[in-house]
Structures are given as C-alpha cells and as structure tokens.
Design a protein that fits this description.
single chain; 205 residues; alpha+beta; Alpha-Beta Plaits; 2 domains; 4-stranded antiparallel beta sheet; 7 helices; elongated
Length: 205
C-alpha cells in the first residue's frame, strides 16, 4: 500500500456563512462521517485542517494500492462530489510521526471492502465447484472427454471476472443495493454455467 494526501479547499461561495444550504451541511456531514469511518478501518491515517478562514485548507492522508485508486478515493469525497470543496491529490510519505494512531503498517482489519471481496470470491468458488460436479456427471454419463477440462478453464475465468472488478464498487454501495448486486451476480453466473454445460455438451456429444 502507498500513502497519498488529498487537500480540500472550500469553494468561494461558502466563505459567506449565510450562503450555506441544507444540502451543503448534509454533504459536509457525510464528508466527516466517511473520514471517521475510514480512519477507524485504517484506510485514513491522518485528517486535519488549517484555521485560516480565508486561505485555509483541509488535508487527508490515506492509503491506496495505486494512483488510480487514490484519485477515485479523493474524488469520491462527498463534499467534492456535491460541490462544497475542491480537491487536489498526490503521493505522500510520512517521515516522522509520534501518533500511535498512525502506524507504519496498519494491522489487518476486516473492512467492508475486504468483506465484499471475500463474498464475491466465495460466490465464484461455489459456482466453480457446482459447475465442475455437473461437468463430471455429464462426462461420465455421456463420455464427453474434453468437456470437463474446457468447462473448468472457462469457469475459472468467470470467477475472476465476477470477483475482482466489483468489490471496490460494492464497498461504497448501500447494504440493500450490495445484497441485490451479489444475488443478481450469483444468479447470472449460475445461468452462464448452465448455458456452458449445454453448449459444450452439444459440441462434444
């Protein structure tokens, strides 16, 4: 994991205290809630801001796998998405630090993101086992020699397609939406597996 920093500045409109709307207040509340949650999970290492009312800025030091993930995280800040703050981000490195809350290596914690990745991988493994058993039955019943190997390779590909790209998105989704996506994905992969069984059986029978 690499360290990054993103810097937030309040938009000019909100320098006037009377200009704040209910939407502005809600977005900033969501901004602080996300930072608090991600700090507790270990993703965010440090949050702070200057006290200059005119030229002040906030800063968030966080961890990400690469530049693409870092940019996505900075841009997804609720206060940025809703137009209350502007953001710039860059790679960062902590040199000296006395805070026990900022370890050099954050201990493993089962975050929502890791949990969702595990669920999707488990779904993929289940589909692989399910498909392999059916393939073996068909192979033994109808003597379709190449069937099992070919289907196994294709279902391994399906596992990676279904488990890797979605887990970051699911980490940001609501619980109801996340469960619906996982259920839909499971049904989709099962249907694809059954279709593959039929197609390859007809091809090799």
């Amino acid at each position: 994991m690499k360290e990054y920093i993103y810097i937030l500045k309040l938009v000019q409109r909100l320098h006037d205290d009377q200009a704040w709307t209910e939407l502005d207040n809600q977005a900033v509340n969501d901004h602080f809630l996300r930072l608090k949650t991600d700090h507790e999970s270990g993703k965010v290492l440090h949050v702070g801001r200057t006290l200059d009312a005119v030229n002040g800025f906030g800063q968030v030091v966080f961890q990400a796998e690469n530049d693409l993930e870092a940019e996505a995280y900075a841009q997804s800040d609720p206060a940025v998405q809703n137009g209350q703050m502007t953001v710039t981000w860059m790679e960062y490195k902590t040199v000296f630090n006395n805070s026990i809350n900022l370890p050099k290596k954050v201990p493993f914690k089962l975050t929502k993101e890791k949990r969702n990745q595990g669920i999707l991988i488990a779904v993929g493994i289940f589909i692989f086992i399910f498909g392999t058993i059916i393939a073996k039955v068909i192979e033994e019943s109808w003597n379709v020699a190449p069937f099992l190997f070919t289907l196994t390779v294709i279902e391994i590909i399906i596992i990676f397609i279904s488990s890797n790209p979605l887990y970051r998105y699911l980490a940001q989704a609501s619980s109801k939406k996340r469960n619906l996506i996982i259920f839909s994905l499971s049904i989709f992969v099962i249907l694809v597996s059954i279709v593959l069984h039929i197609v390859f059986f007809n091809a090799y029978a």
